[in-house]
Amino acid sequence: MINTIILNLIQYLSKKSRLFITALGFILVICIGTGRYLTGPEYAFSLFYLLPIILVTWFAGKREGIFIAVASAVSWLLADLMSKHTYSTPVIPYVNETFRLSVFIIIIIMLSTLKRVLEREKTSARKDFLTGIANRQAFIEYAEVEIKRCLRYKSPLTIAYIDCDNFKSINDSLGHQEGDELLVSVADTLQKSLRTTDIVSRLGGDEFALLLPDTKYESSQRVIRKIQKNLLDIMQKNRWPVTFSFGMVTFNRPPVDVDELINKADALMYAAKQNGKNMIRQDVVDKETSTTAR
To answer: How many domains does the chain fold into?
Structure first.
């Protein structure tokens, strides 16, 4: 129950703007400062100030977190001064708040660093280590989002599965470094040949996948033929004896299951390889048309 509430709260806050989060943190600081003043200096309220500081730092940023930390220190100082509590020397409240502010800022720096590291790890976990494009897990996540969007707006979705024909011969004759350069060139060519809204992924080994949202059957034919030409030009330029087998499916109404989406294109790609390689096998779901093109 508590875990569900916390998760819902995190999802809610993550969708809010920095200004909203900062304002919320500032309101919490005022409430905590008021409570500090009403209860007097005998009760420790320092831990309560960590709540708005952590909240704002995590969801809004380090700069906003420092602002809330300064507001917290000022709030505490004002509560102490207004309580008319006597100190052995008047400078003590200011020294205390300077120390507390330093601790708050250290916490902010540690927290913002932790968030940056986690975000970097999350990003790297979704990228292919060699080519820098999306990996299989990221492709599945993107596909799930696009399927839901296409189902909602009743728009077509095209997926293409690409295999590098005779890639093993490159590794065997020219070495793995040359093979890696070929894969990087393929990934770079695919990215340059598509729109920013399209998704390019290396699913593993020498197999790549493309996701083309809002792309009809006729449009996808032109796109794939262009990609095939660009890839073959790169292979010829580098004297790599590699061609490409394509399996492509346009779904007028995509399936809910991502595996079904991928498996359909994968099956067409293998059909292309079994029928001589270096060809495009295309199909469209919810139409009678099924085309094979060399």
So the answer is: 2
102 and 238 inside one domain:
no
What is the C-alpha separation between 34 and 78, in angstroms, rounded? 10
Q: For strand 290-293 and strand 157-165, is the pairing parallel, antiparallel, or unpaired?
A: unpaired
202 contacts 140 by C-beta, under 8 angstroms: no
Residue 152 shares a structural domain with residue 107: no
List, as one string, the DSSP characters of 61-120.
-HHHHHHHHHHHHHHHHHHHHHTT---SSTTHHHHHHHHHHHHHHHHHHHHHHHHHHHHH
Q: Which residues contact 167 (CB under 8 A, 6 or more apart)?
A: 179, 182, 205, 206, 242
Question: Can you tell me the distance from the alpha carbon of 42 to that of 38, in angstroms, rounded to the nearest whole number?
Answer: 11
This prediction has a pTM of 0.66
DSSP letters spanning 127-177: B-TTT-SB-HHHHHHHHHHHHHHHHHHT--EEEEEEEEETHHHHHHHH-HH
Cα gap 75→31, rounded to integer Å: 10
- For 199-252, the pLDDT digits (tens) are 999 998 999 999 999 999 889 999 999 999 999 999 999 999 999 999 999 999
